[in-house]
Design brief:
One of its GO terms (molecular function) is glutamate-5-semialdehyde dehydrogenase activity. Its main location: cytoplasm. With 445 residues, the chain is an alpha/beta fold. It has 2 domains: 3-223 and 396-401, Aldehyde Dehydrogenase, Chain A, domain 1, CATH 3.40.605; 229-379, Aldehyde Dehydrogenase, Chain A, domain 2. It has 14 helices and 17 strands. Strands 10-9-11-8-7-12-13 form a 7-stranded parallel beta sheet, with helices on both faces. A 4-stranded antiparallel beta sheet has the order 16-2-1-17, with no helix packed on it. It is globular, with a radius of gyration of 25 Å. The relative contact order is 0.14. The model has no long low-confidence stretch (mean pLDDT 92).
């Protein structure tokens, strides 16, 4: 695709975004239900395209160019497609985030200020490997009234094209151009330079990939570079629970960013906990590495300094024995990626200290890190995980794809009235009210 063609697609998205901002939620939600129906009705079409991607990926896996984790993320199945359709319906059923009055303040009689939720505008997304990400991002963008530029990885090109076609075919009642697909690396370069037209970028992929996006654009970027997550088994843990949580966090789906990469164990329970835990991991083919304290209890390979900051994305795990709650907190804050951290303990005070002290988007008590997910949080779905602290943090759902603007409803008031020697004072009174065009709560209009 030429640079001009990419710019044209972004221009069409800009036009559509202005129309989407005014589109009734009933239309947006109905379109999403149509998307879900289309995915369910076209299993064969999608799986046939996906099989081509997987076949090509397996060849590259054998050549050593792809990892098994990437191929696993790429592959779709009938049950996965059903899950994708259910996710889209879940997004459709979420409350409309647009037009919501976030604050209402009376500046004076008949002069009322409303802070109202609105779409961000045009969102650019660049994602790798997982074709279901295309549908997730498109669904959340439509529900939140945003136009979206979709760029998937070349490894999923056949799957992405078919899923994009289904989305576009099912949303004929939505302003044309609201979703655009770009495919070439050159298209991404063009997109990254369009800070005058694209309002937000959301990359999903490896840490190197996300860092590249962040370093090559002046467009705001929402995302995370790594998912180095920890589970800490405290001295006051229920060890049976701890074993289940630590196993689920690593083994249930190791290729994703919320899987645990380092297991921390308090020295007071290490001898009771680690032998059975290590046996269970080994039965699941998990490759294990440990520090000296771990190797005093179980026979595992040595861990290096690099292991403590590595996102394996596979059946690999590093284990460290710590001598205190403080040591666990310090290790996580030093080596974690601010994604998701979990403590297993029966002591509420120790749990509270851990949760207040950890700098991460999500911090759990007695739960697997795998719960860090937009769908599981009840957000319908997510466009990704943000480990930043500005605008949106953690799983980014509909709220993270909106911003706000101020609507002021007056009756001919002038600033001069509130200035000078005889200035009239402002009321600045908060009140419960919803913005409606031309309506002022004090007049009943």
């Amino acid at each position: 695709m030429t640079e001009q063609a990419t710019e044209q697609k972004v221009a069409e998205a800009q036009t559509a975004a202005l129309e989407l901002a005014k589109l009734d939620d009933g239309v947006r939600s109905a379109a999403l239900h149509d998307v879900a129906d289309a995915i369910e009705a076209n299993h064969e079409r999608v799986l046939e395209a996906n099989a081509k991607d997987v076949e090509e990926a397996e060849e590259l896996l054998e050549a050593g160019e792809y990892s098994r984790a990437l191929v696993d993320r790429l592959e779709l199945s009938a049950s996965k497609l059903d899950d994708i359709a259910e996710m889209v319906r879940s997004v459709a059923e979420q409350d409309d985030p647009l037009g919501e009055t976030l604050e209402a303040r009376r500046l004076d009689d008949d002069l009322e200020l409303y802070k109202v939720g609105v779409p961000i505008g045009v969102i650019g997304t660049v994602f790798e490997s997982r074709p279901d990400a295309l549908v997730q991002i498109a669904a959340l963008s439509l529900k939140s009234g945003n136009a979206v530029i979709l760029k998937g990885g070349s490894e999923a090109s056949h799957s992405n094209r078919v899923l994009y076609e289904l989305v576009r075919e099912a949303t004929a009642d939505v302003p044309d151009g609201w979703a655009q697909l770009i495919e070439a690396r050159e298209d991404v370069t063009t997109l990254l330079g369009m800070d005058d037209a694209v309002d937000l970028l959301m990359p999903r992929g490896s840490s190197e990939f996300v860092s590249y996006i962040q370093n090559n654009t002046s467009i705001p970027v929402l995302g995370h570079t790594e998912g180095v997550c920890h589970v800490f088994v405290d001295s006051e843990a229920d060890l049976s629970m701890a074993e289940d949580v630590a196993f689920d966090a690593k083994v249930q789906y190791p290729a994703v960013c919320n899987a645990v990469e380092t297991l921390l164990v308090h020295e007071a329970v290490a001898e009771d906990f680690l032998p059975a835990m290590v046996d269970r991991y080994r039965d699941a083919d998990v490759t294990l590495r440990g520090d000296a304290g771990t190797r005093d209890v179980v026979d595992v390979d040595p861990a290096t300094d690099e292991d403590w900051k590595t996102e394996y994305g596979d059946l690999e795990l590093s284990i460290k024995v710590v001598d205190s709650l403080t040591a666990a907190i310090d290790h996580i804050n030093a080596h974690g990626s601010k994604h998701t951290e979990s403590i297993v303990t029966e002591d509420a005070d120790r749990a509270g200290t851990f949760m207040r002290s950890i700098d991460a988007a999500s911090v759990f008590h007695n739960a697997s890190t795998r719960f860090a997910d937009g769908y599981r949080y009840g957000l319908g779905a997510e466009v990704g995980i943000s480990t930043g602290k500005i605008h949106a943090r953690g799983p980014v759902g509909l709220e993270g794809l909106t911003t706000y603007k101020y609507h002021l409803e007056g009756d001919g008031q002038l600033v001069a009235t509130y200035s000078g020697e005889n200035a009239k004072p402002y009321l600045h009174e908060e009140f419960a009210g919803e913005w409606n065009p031309g309506h002022r709560s004090g007049t009943g209009e």
